[in-house]
Design brief:
five-stranded mixed barrel; Rossmann fold; 8 strands; alpha/beta; 7 helices; 262 residues
Length: 262
């Protein structure tokens, strides 16, 4: 029996994207929402009455009739890098990460939205793709469009730099907290810098709209099962709705969000 030889990155991605997601390449839309929460995919599927694929796979997807796809890639920078690498098989026009983050400043409260201007690569994964001195940045035109959609809803959002870490359990570490205060990051998560960096490497227009889900700098603000349920009930529907609205409208308008290459 002859085997398919996977010689290039594109060859591997084309073979692996369906294997990881249970979704064929041509079933992905031109624009995608990324999340690391299964309930975002479930809510999306219920809203548009579409099937979820990949329940027995590492990642789950669903696509509505307008051609917008949402992918649950799991938690952490390694999974974020994996999906951003695999998406070269589809070459999407734009990707928006709907993630949650911890608020690090007094100006951030539970339920606030953050549109990051950059991310600090504290997770290490990004350094496998770009030198450490290369900043992790979103695609400006994509964020500009999302900003306009939020303002049209008469909602507020914050901007600032996100610190991305591989450490899931750090809230006890007072030295690390002092470091976070010193660098002035507005929020902390585990994926944003990776998505920005690997998206840049793979020429994928990318952005992130983060929901402040906890306030980990103070003991009473550390996420618990009870507090996470409260945030989900109050804010997740709006978070998802903004993402759907923004990525659907940018598709309808056909706005070019990639910068020209000179």
């Amino acid at each position: 029996m002859s085997e398919t030889l996977l010689k290039s990155k594109l060859d591997i991605a084309k073979n692996w994207l369906p294997r990881y997601t249970g979704t064929q390449i041509d079933e992905f839309g031109d624009y995608l929402l990324l999340t690391n929460f299964h309930n975002y995919v479930t809510k999306f599927a219920e809203k548009f009455n579409c099937d979820i694929k990949g329940d027995d796979k590492t990642m789950q997807t669903t696509t509505n009739s307008a051609g917008l796809t949402i992918v649950n890639f799991g938690m952490g920078s390694a999974n974020a890098a994996t999906i951003m690498d695999l998406l070269v098989a589809r070459n999407p026009k734009g990707v928006l990460f709907l993630g949650k983050c911890g608020g690090l400043k007094h100006s951030t409260e539970l339920g606030h939205f953050i549109l990051p201007i950059a991310a600090i690569k504290g997770e290490g994964t990004s350094n496998d793709y770009q030198p450490a001195e290369v900043p992790a940045l979103p695609s400006f035109k994509l964020h500009k469009f999302i900003s306009n959609r939020i303002i049209q809803r008469e909602l507020e959002y914050r901007t600032g730099v996100i610190y991305t870490t591989n450490r899931r359990l750090w809230e006890w570490d007072e030295d690390f907290k002092k470091y976070l205060q010193k660098i002035g990051a507005i929020g902390i998560d585990m994926e944003t810098a990776t998505i920005f960096t690997v998206g840049h490497t793979n020429h994928i227009a990318r952005g992130a709209l983060l929901l402040v889900s906890d306030l980990p700098m103070i003991p009473e603000g550390i996420k618990t099962e009870e507090s996470d349920k409260a945030v989900t009930q109050q804010y997740v529907d709006l978070h998802l709705e903004i993402g759907i609205d923004a990525m659907t409208e940018i598709d309808k308008k056909g706005e070019q969000i990639k910068h020209f290459i000179y």
